[in-house]
Amino acid sequence: MSTQRLLHGVCLAVVALALAACGDNTQPAGSSPTGSPTTNAASKPINVGFIQTGSESAWRAANTNSVKSEAEKRGIKLNFISGEGSVDKQRAAMSTLIAQGVDVIILDPLQNFGWDPSLKAAKNANIPVIIADRAIDSSPDLYVCFIGSNFDEEGQRVGEWLAKKTDGKAQIVEIEGQNGSAAAVDRKKGFEEAIAKYPGMKVIASKSGEFETAQGKQVMEAFLKNPDLKGMTAVFAHNDDMALGAIQAIKEAGKQPGKDLLIVSVDGEKAMVQAIANGEANCTVECKPLLGPALFDAAEKVAAGQKVEAKQYSKEELFDSSNAAQAVKERQY
Length: 333
Ligand code: GZL
Hints:
Layout: H1 3-24, E1 47-52, H2 58-74, E2 77-82, H3 87-100, E3 104-107, H4 116-124, E4 129-133, E5 145-148, H5 151-165, E6 170-176, H6 182-195, E7 201-208, H7 213-225, E8 234-237, H8 240-252, E9 262-267, H9 270-277, E10 283-286, H10 292-303, E11 311-313, E12 318-320, H11 324-327
Parallel strand pairs: 1-2, 1-3, 3-4, 4-5, 5-11, 6-7, 6-8, 8-9, 9-10
Antiparallel strand pairs: 10-12
The chain binds beta-D-galactofuranose.
Beta-D-galactofuranose binds next to α2 and β9.
């Protein structure tokens, strides 16, 4: 073989070896200009524990659905635990999730007190806690943020609507929510603050219906049978499910709900807005259950070590005969 041909062969071999070496070092797409590889793998999905109150109302069902569907959409590993109406079960769930070492815990507390020990345990385990929907009396340095509604304002708005509707004269029976829940405590407080300005408005009876339709109906049946309450002119229910139960009881007693007795409530559920459009109820202030997006925005930020707003309140509408017929078409729950 001539020297020239030999040199040509050696050159080709050197070029081939050089190309092969490049091929081995091809960087994955998106590699940094310095050539140091950056991973293409999606960052590990966060692991979130969610402790729910239970399944007491249509509002709660919509809230649970919003949380589960949003987690699935984002590829978040969700460990969903229902308190089944028991605070003890919720506290046990906190211990379980801390032991599992989840990245973030979201708690929707049945009661607004007694959470310091659980929150301190989570803090000691470096697990941030987000409070959803119902507020608590623990110090804000024990949890990251609150995302939900301003229940006091909801109670005020219902009270002010009723005062305007009745020219400040109403004898009111009150069907309360779950005892000790922020929703019940603060709606009651806001309503009472609003009607305190009107000497002609008075709550003449109060009893808990636990946010449930059947119990709301039972409480209303007892009010209707009580001779001391014959002068009642209005019903204030802490949520729509109980108001709908009260409407059933009023009809079965041969009276016209929405006319013989004014019915005011909170949540803005489709069935209640429909009852208002039908003239069988009078007012409901919306309380937004579709918190999934806001909760997981906060959880993802917290898991990434970013700051989040301490309090995030939903913006909510009021429905009465002036807007119910149109609004009912858009209600999602
Ligand atoms: C309010 C929520 C309440 C609803 C009820 O944010 O906690 O609990 O008003 C639900 O319908 O049961």
